[in-house]
Amino acid sequence: MLLESGVHCIEVATPFRVGPVNVYLIDDDPLTLIDTGPNWGSALESLERGLNEIGVGVGNLGLVLLTHQHIDHVGLAGLVSRRSGAEVGGLDILADYLVDYDASAAADDAMREATMCRHGIDPAIAALLRSTSATTSRWGASIVITSRLRPGDKVVLRDRSLRVLARSGHSPTDTIFVDEAAGFAFGGDHLLSGISSNALVDRILGGEDAPSDRRAPSLLNYRESLRKTQELDLRVVFGGHGPPVLDPDALIRKRLAHQDARALEFLEHLESGPLTAWELALRHWGKIAEQQPFLTMSEVLGHLDLLIAAERVVEHVDRDPVLFQITGSEIIGR
Length: 334
Ligand SMILES: [Zn+2]
Hints:
- By secondary structure, the protein is an alpha/beta fold.
- The chain has helices at residues 41-54, 71-74, 77-84, 92-98, 101-118, 123-136, 218-231, 248-269, 277-285, 287-291, 293-309; strands at 2-4, 7-12, 21-26, 32-34, 63-65, 87-91, 147-149, 154-156, 161-166, 175-179, 184-188, 236-239, 313-316, 323-326.
- The N and C termini lie far apart (58 Å).
- The site of zinc ion has 5 residues, from loops.
């Protein structure tokens, strides 16, 4: 589908619940692809079909740019670059993450499992998380990023240039590629029209001394990233799933307001006394928390970070599991 002069969207199949992923082809020199889809036969088929409809093939690609570490977006990048000889461009922290995908995914799993246990989740449910992750990770693959980008860099093509901006939150490596002259961005999963992007429990990446076992304040980072994007005053954002975001400013305001409202809901749950993050998840979602422990705990911990930053909640890290309580209230009977 042609979206703008020289910009096409190809829907690539994924085996995941999110449905197809949007891959963008920029008809320029070099011929450029934004994301690739997962490492999956049906994904490759739909990518090839989409490229053929535009009149090109995988072999014609000269550059592949990657928006973030999630495998529905980047799993196929290694294969695509091997077949085409295309350069692969991405943030330097993404390059470090993807060079040994299995090791990075294992480090993510270990940190997430430890975090969940520290926050009161049943260890059996935490172990289940690890096995689910092992099953999904086979749609990922290691990728060598040949063109390591830094925030603020410009990718210069024949007809347009793209500003590379870091937007951590949904993942630590989220990146948007902005065509400043045309007023649009390729946003990956940073801002999606149909679904609110999850700010997931993730490690802090980047730098030699980044603590590998510490949790990033994903939702706080995400909100800061949304505000930075809001300042760009973009006309449209081409997201990684669903239709383009046609009024980025309005959608960002809506997303921020929704997060504020949800944080207040968690605050209400704490009015009856201190709770662990897992107790909060169960109180808020019931059975859904048990079915989707990782997503619901990411939500709870993210919004607790927000409440802690606003000095509405305090976190007792000396407790096992960690307890959260409303600022100034007493811990009674725990
Ligand atoms: Zn994603």
